[in-house]
Amino acid sequence: MEHFKKNLDRISLQFSLNRDQTEMIRQYALCLFEENRKYNLTGHKTIEDILDNLIEGSLLPLPGLDVPRGTFFADLGTGAGIPGIPISIFLEESTGVLFDSSIKKIRFIQEAAAKCGIDRISGVSCRIEEAGRAPEFRESFEWIFSRAMADLYIVSEMASPMLKTGGFLYLYSRDSELAENINVKKHLQELGLEVLPGSWNNTKQPGERTEGILLKKGTQCGERFPRRIAAIKRERDKL
Question: What CATH number does the domain located at 68-237 have?
């Protein structure tokens, strides 16, 4: 636990977290660690691994992204709350909806948020393609984040119908080569999305680079999106 406290202090300083934010991060890491011992919510087994890889990894791009105060965001395929809970802690005035198909994981998110004093997020258990057709979520979010749910082709179709025109989609992803595929570009164009040039990078250790893809929604996408996941995967597999 000494290593955990030292790394928590480092993260607090690195991201200029105040005392309340630091305590929320600590409590969330402990909640996830304890719950993971019982229900295997994530493959990261140690408290230090949860803090360094899941939580810090979720925070890394945020200082470089221009996310306004009061932003309404979504986290697609949140799992145990990654990256949505760390995002909500960092962006203090934001509100967010965290989506996952697992009722067990959404239940954990709700319990962890209550324990940590995070009252600006809600968890929704449903299939993402169904959320994209629901009136209460379609074209509702200013920012959407997704980490490890699926590749660029799939996530972009899931996310675009839920984004407001002018909104942004951020993927914790290294699919930069896929983004250059001509058929992927055509797909993104149909969805009203464009990949913005450049990617964030942050060096945690010498020689280590982390990357992400930022997209902007310039126009509305067609009513036929999102399709069922099986149809999206069939098209993706043809690439």
Answer: 3.40.50.150
